From TrEMBL:
<dbReference type="InterPro" id="IPR001207">
    <property type="entry name" value="Transposase_mutator"/>
</dbReference>
<keyword id="KW-0814">Transposable element</keyword>
<protein>
    <recommendedName>
        <fullName>Mutator family transposase</fullName>
    </recommendedName>
</protein>
<comment type="function">
    <text>Required for the transposition of the insertion element.</text>
</comment>
<comment type="similarity">
    <text>Belongs to the transposase mutator family.</text>
</comment>
<dbReference type="GO" id="GO:0003677">
    <property type="term" value="F:DNA binding"/>
</dbReference>
<dbReference type="Pfam" id="PF00872">
    <property type="entry name" value="Transposase_mut"/>
</dbReference>
<keyword id="KW-0815">Transposition</keyword>
<dbReference type="GO" id="GO:0004803">
    <property type="term" value="F:transposase activity"/>
</dbReference>
<keyword id="KW-0238">DNA-binding</keyword>
<keyword id="KW-0233">DNA recombination</keyword>
<dbReference type="GO" id="GO:0006313">
    <property type="term" value="P:DNA transposition"/>
</dbReference>
Length: 405
């Protein structure tokens, strides 16, 4: 496709006396309209086999039959065109199909704005400001509803047979349900493949977070092809370990160390918090489980009488804390915290911060799905030092990875 030369552009500017960007847009709008009109005429000419003013070469019993006015929406605003007709009614334009009235790619723009967290009303106003035609909030909502089949397909897509790590957490929202405001949980599952790449496996909208719902999530993963998971990284929801064991009995469950520390620190007043947290570093920085337990008992001797609940939560949850200590630094960095999924939640909050209440579950699902797709596009790098991580996993979990490598 050829481009205009600088001299041609200078000539256009001189001839049209452009004074503003609006003048340029108006000119481009007229040019766009003329081009569309000429393309329609050319299509009908090719269909009939003779030019408008060349009846002598007509070799068909069909002929032109006037025009049908049509208003189309474009990136330059609304444009009135005249669609040529043939007498037999056989002409089907390809440049602008019969029932198409939008040639601006406006639907993609609406969905992109919605994915960034704009309300349907804000999108409606922005479209009018940018393109000069109105699009009601209801129409914006209908446009975004068109991604529903895409969401369903994504939710049902086959998954990998094995994941090295899976992180699970929920983020909470308020949704209208038959006129009442209810608390809903978006259950988020993020997986790390055996090649070291992150992916969002699923987002489910359900009742407030519960181990029963998580079990349903885990069973859905199994039904979609996930046969094995080496390590699940989770927070401290009661019953979650049991749900994981029921669905994936061979998997290890690793409690997020950061969540565990936060849970302990809430029992310690500010005056002792710094000293207490410094002492605790010796526990989770220990080179193995034996030394970690020694440091925990030393901590208990020093602080146990004053803050028994802060220590007890580590003792009670040691079975889901201790797997951490058998791994080298590369793997500890991955399972030390569920920050990876909390980072995803921060992206969700960015696009949902203007919406205190969602009208339906599906409206919440739409925006979280679109936000997820934007995040996943940026996950192009695998975890650092993945070769060393994988070598460790092969040794720690013999017989479970070899057939997939």
């Amino acid at each position: 496709m050829s481009t205009l030369s600088k001299e041609h552009i200078k000539q256009l500017v001189r001839e049209n006396n452009f004074q503003s960007v609006s003048d340029v847009n108006a000119y481009l709008k007229d040019i766009f309209k003329d081009i569309i009109q000429e393309l329609l005429e050319a299509e009908l000419e090719a269909e009939l086999g003779y030019a408008k003013d060349d009846v002598a070469n007509k070799n068909t019993d069909n002929s032109r039959n006037g025009y049908t006015p049509k208003k189309i929406k474009s990136e330059f605003g609304e444009i009135d065109i005249q669609v040529p007709r043939d007498r037999k009614g056989e002409f089907q334009p390809k440049i602008i199909p019969k029932y198409q009235r939008n040639v601006s790619g406006i639907e993609e723009k609406v969905i992109a704005l919605y994915a960034r967290g704009m309300s349907t009303r804000d999108i409606s106003q922005q479209i009018e400001e940018l393109y000069g035609f109105s699009l009601s909030p209801e129409m914006v909502s209908k446009i975004t509803d068109r991604i529903a089949p895409e969401i369903k397909e994504w939710q049902q897509r086959p998954l990998e047979p094995i994941y090295s790590f899976i992180f699970m957490d929920a983020i909470h929202y308020k949704v209208k349900d038959e006129g009442r405001i209810t608390n809903r949980a978006a259950y988020v599952v993020l997986g790390v493949t055996i090649d070291g790449y992150k992916d969002i496996l699923e987002i489910w909208i359900g009742d407030n977070e519960s181990s029963k719902f998580w079990l349903g999530v885990l069973n859905d993963l199994k039904n979609r092809g996930v046969q094995d998971v080496l390590i699940f990284c989770v927070d401290g929801l009661t019953g979650l370990k049991e749900a994981i064991n029921a669905a994936y009995p061979k998997s290890e469950v690793q409690r997020c160390i950061i969540h565990q520390l936060r849970n302990s620190f809430k029992y310690v007043p500010y005056k002792d918090l710094k000293a207490f947290s410094n002492d605790f570093k010796e526990v989770y920085h220990a080179i193995n489980e034996e030394i970690a337990l020694e440091k925990l008992y030393e901590l208990k001797e020093k602080w146990g009488k004053e803050y028994p609940f802060a220590i007890r939560s580590w003792e009670n949850n040691w079975d889901v804390i201790s797997p951490f200590f058998k791994f080298p630094e590369e793997i500890r960095k991955i399972i030390y915290t569920t920050n990876i999924i909390e980072g995803l939640h921060r992206q969700f909050r960015k696009v949902t911060k203007t919406k205190t209440i969602f009208p339906t579950d599906s409206s919440l699902e739409k925006i979280l799905y679109l936000a997820s797709m934007n995040v996943v596009k940026k996950w192009t790098q695998r975890y650092k030092n993945w070769d060393r991580v994988l070598s460790q996993l092969v040794i720690q979990y013999p017989g479970r990875l070899e057939e997939y490598i």
